[in-house]
Structure formats: C-alpha cells, structure tokens
Amino acid sequence: MNRIQIETAIGGLLHDIGKVLYRYNDGRNHSESGYDYLKKHEISNIEILDQIRYHHSNLLKGAKIPENSPAYITYWADNVAAGADRRSADGEAGGNKYNRYVPLQSVFNILNGNKQRFSYPMEGLNDEGRIIYPVKDTVEYSEETYSRIINNISAGINQIELNEKYINSLLGVLEANLSGVPSSTDTTQLTDISLFDHMKITAAIGGCILEYLTENGVENYKEALYKRGSEYYGKDSFLMLSMDMSGIQNFIFQVVSDGALKSLRSKSFYLEMSLEHIIDELLGRLELSRANLIYSGGGHAYLLLANTEKTKSIINRFDDELKQWFISNFGIELYVAIGYVECSANDLMNKEDGSFEAIFKNVSLKVSERKVKRYNGRDILKMNLSNNKPDSRECRVCGKTDNLDEEELCEFCSAFKSISSGILRESFITVLSEKPEKEVSIKLPFDRYMVLDNEDRLKVRMNKDKNYIRSYSKNRMYTGLNLSTRLWVGDYINGETFNDFAESSQGIERIGVLRADVDNLGKAFVSGFESCYAGLSRSASFSRRMNMFFKFNINNILANPVFGMDGIENEKRKAVIVYSGGDDVFIIGAWNDIIGASVDISDAFEKYSQGTLSISAGIGIYAKKYPVKSLAGETGELESCSKSEEGKNSVTLFDANGRENTYKWDVFKNKVIGEKLSLIDRYISMNPEKGMSFIYKIMEYVRECEEKSNLPRLAYLLGRISPEAKASDEQKRTFREFAEKIYEWTSEENKAEDRKQLLTAIYIYVYLNRGNKERNDG
C-alpha cells in the first residue's frame, strides 16, 4: 500500500471514534472530540487527523486543507456508508431525536418480515464464546459503559503502530470494542448497525473510490467528491466479488478409519484456513485491508473492490494462478470459483428498489458460470500429464500418486495427521513464505506454508523470521505485526476417537452424527430485508452475527448442555465439531449427546435470530467402525429429508425412508421427548420388573396399529402389567396415565401422528436402556 492508501484506510476506520467520547462525557462535536483524542495518543499524521476532523460537510466547507486531501474521500465514503445503514423505524428518512445511551438494536428485528424491537445488552466480544442474545427488555447504556470502551480502545491503539502492517490489528481492536455499540443514536432511526460495521464499511468504500479516482486521473477530490459527490453515487465505481469453494465435502470425508476423527478435523480446518489465506493474498495484491472483506465462511466470501482495469487484471491473473495451484496439488478435487459484477454507490445504498439485491443475484450467476466452465484445454492437458507418474505410488488415503512417506501417505495426508493436535492446542496460525525445517507445516495455495504457534513462538517469528508473512489468532483478541484477523473457529472437542464416543454413550454403544444447516440463508442474505432496509452495512452486520454463532458461539453451546432426554445434563457434551461455519454444521459424538446438542443448537439459534431463521438437521446413529464416507452421506440424506418438509425447520432421525422419524423441532422436543419418552421412562422407572420385553411388545403392537388397531390385544397387554392391589397410589396413578395414553394414541384413527411419535420415543428409550451385553453384541 502506498502512503495515501494507508492514510485513507486508517482515517476511514477511525473517522467516528469521537462518537464514543461524546457518549462518554465529551459534549463537543464528535469530529472535534475524535481529532483531539488521536492527537493525545501522539498521532500526528495530518492526513489521518483531517479525516477525523472534517468528515462532515459543515466542518469540511470551511476547512483549509488541500484539494487532494483524503478527508474528501472519507467524507464521501461516510455518506455512502450512512446511506446504506440509516433507516427510520418505518423505513423513511430519519429525524434528529438523539439519545446518547440508546442501545444497539438487533439486526434480526427486521429480517424476514419481523417487526420486533429487541436490543443487545452492552457486552463486548468475549473469548469464552458466551452468546449475547437480543432481549425485549429496555436496555440503556451508560457513561460508565463508554468509559470502559474508550479505555480499552486506548490500550489497543497504544500497542500498535498506525501503518500498513497493523491496519488489520486496528480493525480487530475496533471490532472487539465497537461491535456492540450503535453507529447512530437517533431514536427515530433503526439503530441496528454497529459503530464498528459503519466504520469498517466506510474504510472499504474509501479505499475503493480512491483507486477508482486514481485510475481515472482525478486528483482534485474536493471537486469530485465534495462539490459533485452525488454524480459519483451513480457511477459503477465498485466491484462486488464472490468466491465459492467446490469439493469441500468429498475432500473432508475421504479418510481411512485409522485416525479418522483427526483427519476430519484437520481437513476441515485446512479448508477454512485456505480460504482465509486466499482472501488475504488477493487483498494484498490489490493493496487493500480486511475492511474490504464483507463476509467469509462455509467456503464462501464476498469482497468490495474498486472497479478499475488494474483491479480486474489482478483478479484474472490471481484466478488463473489459484486454479493452476489447485490442479497441481489436488487435481479436480478442489476448485475456487471467482466472479465479480460492477455496481454503484446507489446500488450499495439500494436507492432504486431491488438494486442491492440484484448485486448478489448477478454475482452468484457469474460464479455459477465459472463453475460450469472451470477448465480449458490447457488445464486438462496439465492434469493428464501430472497423473502420469510411473515411479510414484498411490497414497492410501486420497489415492494421489506421489512420493509417499513410510506410512504410505502423501505430503498433504501426512500433514493432516501431524497437525491435528496442534489445531486444538495452539492459539495462532502463521503463514510463511518457505517450508520450515524441523517443524510440522502444511502447504497452502501459492506455495505458502502454514504452521501452528503459541504466543511466544509467534512473537519470535514476528521479530526474527524473514519468512514470516502474516498470522491469525484463534478465538481470542490479539494485535501484532501483520496479524490478519481473529478467526472464529468451531473447535470444540471432548473425546479423541469414535471409540471414545461410543463407549461414553448412554445405553447402546453407538456414535451419533449431526448434519445441519440454516434454512433459506441465501435468500435471507439477498432479500431477507425489505427493500427500504436493504443495504451493504446491514448485510455485513447480519453476516457477522451469523459467523459468530456458527463459528464461535457453538463451542459454548456444546460445553454447556441444556437439553437432555433424561432431564437437565450438566456435563460437557461428548462430541467434536468436524466443521461449523457459514451455515453448515457437522458434529460427531456420543449418540445421546448428539441428539441433545441438536436441540440445544436449534433452541439457541431460534432465540439468537428471534425466530426469523431456522435450521434443519439429520441425525444418524452408527457403530463405531462404520465407514466415515457412508455415515456422512447417509446423514446428508437425513438432512435433505428434513429440508424437503414444508416449512423446513425439522429434524430427521435414524432413517430417511418414509419420513418415519421426521419432526418439527418443537414436536420432537415437546411431544416425542417431553411427552412420550418421558411417560415411558416414568412408568418403567416405577416398575423396573416389567423390563424391555414389555416395551418391545408395545412397539410391535404400535406397528400393527398402522394397519388396524386391535383393542383386545391392547387390553391383554395392559392387563398383564396392571399393578397389584398392594402397589402404591403413585404406581397406580402412573399406570392409569400410561394405559390411558397408550389407548388414546393407538386406538383412535386420528392419532397417526401420535403413533409415529410414540414409535420414535420407544426407539430412543430402547437405545438409552440397552444393557452391557446388548451394548457389546450390538
């Protein structure tokens, strides 16, 4: 980055810092407050300071600054960012009724037709992954709140230098402290856009318009952006770029049974890191910071870039280099499709109804086209030649011909095995330009190398390693030289092997597999907000909230169980996250913990999104030696079965055939588990002598009732278990309740759904209560 690019990026990120001071105890204009604050922190760069002091028209009008000052860029970018997020509660232009302690409202208030007014309690990002839920109660921040925030920001700024190598660290400091603070305190407006999101988007827009003006030979920013700024709103000065990685699931699940869990975890982590690395490589070539990254997760990414020939040329070269690297290292197994479309500031602000939505629809079409036409003749020839290695052997895991190690593993499969423990143990991921000696590393796109570090090793690399390129912190706030970002990573683990999970399960010795994703997330992202609310800042805020839940908060959900099939469970779930990001979840564990965790995740997400979004899931139960690829595919079919239900928002268990065990989440939780399983458990607990044989007979009878009820047989079965005269009153009451409910659910023609639920409850009860002999016999 050159001097003005750096200054514009930093100025855009800090332009509204004075708002925090104003809400603390400084009653002056926030532009003046921010200007003085930065000067007190020994920031003397006049180009940066002018952006803070003069980013509003009334102050800029009489400012004695050069015509090419970046203050004009940030002024224009701030207007575009504000135009993309400021909306009154009814969608019209806002007024001027300010309350400096107004809370940050939930972005889900207006998603998918919602009309709620929930707000977030003031709580900064925490390293524990504790979920910050929106609440209906009145929330008001305080002077003390903002005092704490400004002190934290001051401490963060004091630890970094305001230059290119620390821009992303500055972004991290602001995210940690301002993502829970509203950008606007106008009570006639929606206050659901955080100050962090607004400042980040301002910096992104500023960096783009700077490049656009430079390529078009515009040097007088005052004339272009201050006097004729509205003209530039309509110019296609931006590119929206999308990336989409293909082949993820086949790649992850191509493992052998020996050490399968470690390989699954390593491969998932590798793909996530590869995408983040690809994003940073592209941003570096374009001389931009992570402020221009709108979203990344689940193999997808969106970036806001400048619409210049230079940018397009860099993207096209980058695209081809990336494709060639994947061909050389993975053949056709993995592919990243890149597409982009031109757009204007008016489009980003959705000035014309539907124009913002059209950006994402059009770029999605571009990416789809790239997927269809991904390889040319040269690429195919290269792949044929690379596969012709007569002296090489095939890797026993992936089948790739290569020079293998003594375990018959290729370079990548060997590395996946080696890095598994480090993924859980270490807090930093470092990218190097050369393969390190005597260290476990794995090759990334463009022949960079990833190593896993603790804090001490990272500090040494930052200061002394000439091969150091950048680093990432994992699930914790950190700043440092070329520290790219804090990555949210779903890395929960409580158990090392499938055998661990099976042996720790309750009842039958089996593992459970959960696959789930968010229903209609793509539609929500593109068109979930009414046209009057649609815009870049709101979509960025929504995306960040989604990432937080599935990449970070999910760890906390698994560590703090709520739902149990035998009451409240207090122990941590016996499970491991294989992957969780974007909108996809894949978790393996003890089968009973997997069912409980699925309900916890669904309940937490419903509360988190205020019921505006839902998830659908498939849950399979398998022997511990079941082939990984098969259990993944079969659980995917269960998930698809749930997705095909009207309204989705469902879970399918055991078997997808005939939808015998597909339920809406509330039905599964309250009817299958809360009502029927609970009733069976209460009765058997009070009458243990009846045992499993009776349950099997009831199960057989319920199955027969699907064709025709047999009341005499039911009367006979219930008569055999009728309590004796000496039984306690409680035993008699429990029997009467049990008998009446079984009769009701099985004898009435309109109770087919109850019979279905009863069968599922019986299956679960049987699984929960199989004895040791049955556990061993399977």
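[next item in queue]
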Amino acid sequence: MAVKKEKYPALPLRDIVVYPKMIVPLFVGREKSIRALQEAVDKEQNIVLVTQKDAAEEEASPENVYGVGTLGAVLQLLKLPDGTLKVLIEGVERVKIDKFTDNQEYMEVIAAAMPEHEKDSLEMEALSRAVVSQFEEYVKLSKKIPAEVLVSINQIEDLSKMADTIASHLSLKIADKQELLEAQSLKERFEKILGFMNAEITMLEVENRIKTRVKKQMEKSQKEYYLNEQMKAIQKELGDNEDEELSEYMKKISKTRLSKEAKEKVLTEVKKLKTMSPMSSEATVVRNYLDWVLGIPWKKPSRVKKDLHEAMAVLDADHYGLEKVKERIIEYLAVQSRADKVKGPILCLVGPPGVGKTSLGRSIAKATGRHFVRASLGGMRDEAEIRGHRRTYIGSMPGKIIKGMKKAGTSNPLFLLDEIDKLGNDYRGDPSSALLEVLDPEQNSTFNDHYLELDYDLSDVMFITTANSLDMPRPLLDRMEIIRLSGYTEEEKIEIAKQHLLPKIFEENAVKPTELFISDEAIRDVIRYYTREAGVRNLERELATIARKAIKDIIMAQEDKDTAVKMVKVTEKNLEKYLGVIKYRYGEAEDQDHIGVTTGLAWTEVGGDILFIEAVDMPGKGKITQTGKLGDVMKESIETAYSVVRAHSKELGIDPEIFEKTDIHVHVPEGATPKDGPSAGIAMYTTLVSVLTKTPVRKDVAMTGEITLQGRVLPIGGLKEKLLSALRGGIKTVIIPKDNEKDLVEIPDIVTKGMKIIPVKEVSEVLSVALRRPKKAR
C-alpha cells in the first residue's frame, strides 16, 4: 500500500527530540520558525517537529536536520512580550521527510507517516516487562525522575506509547534519542532502550561509588579539623599560643596609619583568624584580605616638587609645544606651594592618536615628583574592574583603582586612566558609572571598594584621563577639566622629530649620530608624502625605517671591506631609496576649477581632513539623490541647502522651472567611510549653486560652516584641526563662520599666515569668494 505524502511546515528543534503522544512546551524565537508556527495555526494544519544535528547553527538548513521527525499538533500558542512564542505541542506520529520545498519564508517539507511494524504480541509483552523492570532500577539510581512517572508508565497499555514515554525520560545524547525515534519496529525500539538503560545504569553505579568515596574523605577532613581544634586548646592550656603569623599582622597594623574604621575592621579580621583552622579555605580568604588592606598606602604621601622653573624645564624637555597643558600644571603647582591641602586636579586630555597624551601623563608625574600609575580602560565592560569583587566570590580581588594605589606605594600618585572614551558596558554593570565616584573631588575622599568594604581617601591623587573624542556619558564628562590637544603643524613635527624622535630612534637602533644625518627637508618630505596624521606615530615609524636601512648599509659596507661609507646622508633627493614610492599626494586640492565640486573641511578622531562634495544635474523630475554613506544630519544639510537655493533662485540667476525638470545627484567621495555632521552646509550650498548656474568653484578655496534656511552661517567645532588639514592640503583660502573668528586666537601663527581666512555671516558672502564668476547673490 502506497504511503500518502503531504506538505507540512517544519519546526527545527535544538537539543530536544519530541516523540509521538508526548506533550511538550516549546519557546520559539527564530523568525522562520515563528512563521512556520503561524502558518500551521492559520491553516489548522499539523507541523513537523524535526531536530537539528548541530544545535549551534542559528539558521537551520536541510543538511543540518535529521530525516525523521514527529508530526505535531499545536494545542496552545502564546505570544510573549519579547516577541518569542510559547507553544504547547502534542506529538501525533512518526514521519519520514521525503524532501524540502523551496519556501523562503519558513522551512517546509513533504513527509509521509511511518507505519509501525509490530510482530508477535507475546514477545512484545515479555520485552515490555523487561524494559519496565529495568526502568524501575534506573529511576532508583538516578533520583532525578519522580516516582509518579513509574506509576503512570505501569498504567500505559499501548506498548508503542510506553516505549516512547520511557525514551523521553532517559538522559541520552540527541543522536541516541533520534536513533530511538527512527526505529520503526517496536521490537527494535525496546531492544535499543534496554541497551541504553544498561549503559546508563552502569554509569550511575560508578557515580554513586565516587560520591560515597568523596563523602568518606570529607568526614576525614572534618575529623582532622576537630583534632586541630583540640591541639589548639591544649597549646592554650600549656601557654604555648604564640602565633608568629598573627604577631606579624599586629606589627603591620601598628605601623600602618589606618583610618579608625579600617583599624577596627582589620582587628576584627585578625580575631576571626585566630579562631580558624590554618588549613581552612576561609582562613586563606581572611589572610588575603588582611594582606590587601595592609598593603595599600594609608596617609603615606610622597614629597611633591614645588619648584615651578624646574617643573617647566622637565615638561619642555619631554614635550614640544602643548603650552595649554603645561600652563595648567604649573598653575596647580603654584597653588600647591601656597596652600597646605589642595585637591588633586582631574584633567582629561582629548586629542587624536599620536599627539602624546599618555607620555604627557608620565612627564607630568616626573615634573610634580609623584609616582606614576597607568590603567588602561579600553574595552572594559565590568563594573567590578573599577570597584572590585565582593569577598563572597571565589578568587575575588580589589578593582584597578586599589591595585594601582598598591602598585604606587604612596597615597598621592599621578593616576593615568587611559582611553576613557573606549569604556563599554553590558549586563555586568557600567564601569563609566563606577568612575563617577572616583573622578568626583567631593566624593572620592570616601571611595568604597567592594572587596575592602572600607572608605579609602583618593582626594590627594592626581587623576589624568585620556580620550580620542568626547563621546562618553555626560555625567562623567562633567567631572573632568577638558584640555584639548590638537594635531601638530608641519613645523612642530619637524622640531619634535629633531629634538625627541631621532635621539630615541638612534638609541633604539644603535645608530651613532656620526653615522646618520637626515636633513630638515627630508623630514619635511617624510611628513608630507609618507604620513597623513595629526600626531607623530607614523613619522616615528618612517624615521625608524630610515635608521634601520642606514645601519644595514653601513654594516654591509664594512663587511665588504668598503670603508667609503662612514656616514649615510638622507636628503629630499634620495629619500625614495629608503622609504620607497610616495604614499600620499601633498596638496590635495583639485588641479583645476570644476563645476559642482567644492572642497569642504571635516573633523575626525584622528585630526582634520579634506572632503570633496560633488554634484551633477540631469534631466528628471526634481529628485535629489544622496550617496557616500552620509549620516542623517548630513542628509538634512543637503535638504536645507537645496531649499535655500530654491528660495533665492531668482537672485542667483536660476530659472525656478529648472527645479521641476532637473534631478541632482550629490556625492561625497570615499563612499565606504561614514560621514555625518552639519558643518558641510555651506559647501553643499556652493556645490548646488555651482551645478545649477554652471559656474566653476575655485580649486584653492575650502570652507566649513552650518547653514540655516535663512541663509545664515552658524559656527562649527574642531576649527584648528580643520585649518591644519587645509594647510596640509595646499589650500590658499578658507571660509569659516563669523562666530568662529574668536577661535583664531588659539590657532598657531604658521597656520593663519599660511592661508587667507575669510569669516562670513551669510551664504551670499560665500559665493562671492568661492565661485570663479559669481552670480549676483542676495
């Protein structure tokens, strides 16, 4: 007789095999599985329950599911608040999957019922009794299966249902459970169940023997503890209770300048230690706690330098430029020399990579005479990393703050918290919130670590944090004094290379000053053509490459008995020999004026950069296309600029009807790089006017500024970085918002003298400068 094949939705299961006549609750969260269930419910149809071979695979595929499953009837369906479904399903019968359909919405199969082959009922009766008897023994040993299960199994008359019920209660691997499901004959199923139960019973007997042995060992350790306690009592009666370890702790307590609360806590712990067995795990926990409390510095400050001239000399020797930071440190030292007690300042050095934030922290410690401690916060996700773990946890320890204080050995070190903007957070807590107490001068005098459970005074500590951006929680930002470190100018980089990088590179690569000479012009060309950065990290790498190649040439010449090579001279003419072909084009400005191409200026975490805004027009219906991986704010800037152009089209000499007949495509190159922010508003406006009036934009003009619907130009941030990038790019004229004119005071003279900076209030002023043949604007 041919077996009827039908089409059913399929539900792939993980870590469970459902047998016929079983009623099981399932939680369904995968999209395709939810759609399959909805389909079965909507069409009042059964669903095929099929188990995955690999439970770790998120998207179940036909190759990853078994070929035999169970046809199930949906009894109840409940949608949970998180979007998952709770479903109650009853297994109906075994089915064999013939093939999978091409349904993309959910898994769908064509399957046929598997008829059961039942032989001599007398033999089946005997087998069923043997299985029930064996199962009773398994239940007694397992103790995980309630006794009521035995009662219900004895009441089952259907042998097929009995076999499946017993199989569902066995602790088997998924592959073994699937093997039982696939067994078509009842005899085969009973025999497999007997085999699996025999193996499980053997395993359980071994486990019970191990448990008995462990219990005996525990009784032995308790006996030893009792005898140790008796020994202590005898020693006490004899007067022999001198404990070297406890007396050592008492000496440390008397020498350490603990707070009143800490002293009481430590003495309590010492008393507790006296009553404990030395070998107990609790005694080890108490010892570790005492070692930590007595190991950190309590009211133990180091002598802080008060000579302002000496401090300034140290800062100048270690770092070139950075006048604002140096001035703030000298101010702090000046106040400290007058006042007896000054709370340690909390500074946040913000700037692009490679400008010397971390090394500046070390230099400040040297200038102020404080011990230097550094803790990296990048990628930290656990609040316990800052505050420590509670002592109830095994292997608990204090957080990074207390560890740093122990490492410093003084109560007034300089504590550098590196990469504070890279803090993460997850279910274990938010470390940035834990730092709020540490970095608040009003609270950190009573900093409470979870491990110590004592108030510890951090008010004398000088905290310095570093970050690449101000993208961090507002309350944390509010507690710190922000000092911005912008990128270096070309002249500053040359001085840094000569004064700091080259001596360091010569020492690291064992190069004598008489063996290698690099001219200022060569260093300038390295900066221009081989690096593009705000800091000096890549410059250091390139100079180190020159040093290594130079020393290689010298040594090889000596080995070849060629004494002619005594000094390697690197100039702009032979630079390519050491560094290869030029990596970057200096002066990124366009070679000629273009219609619809405007040079904008952008701020990034690694400094400023030049941005080109391009636009083309084409016949259409007034649609604007925006590409270049632009953020929402930048897209809105294009919409605003377009509206300003349309509103003043007559003044700009643009036929209003052209907007209905022309499509415009605005693109910002380097499409893979995400871009956002409002500061390209006037550049967008200039590009649109240029493309609609067919007027070229001057190649040597760059601009930055936000635009309003009224045509006003609003101020922007990151002006220094943007002007530095314009200088690097060979731009001669930069248009900035009028409100940013006050910020020019902080811009180095070499930048302001190297280009013409034009402040503007209205977009009409922009067009008169930027367009080669400007139209009459409003």
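[queue empty]
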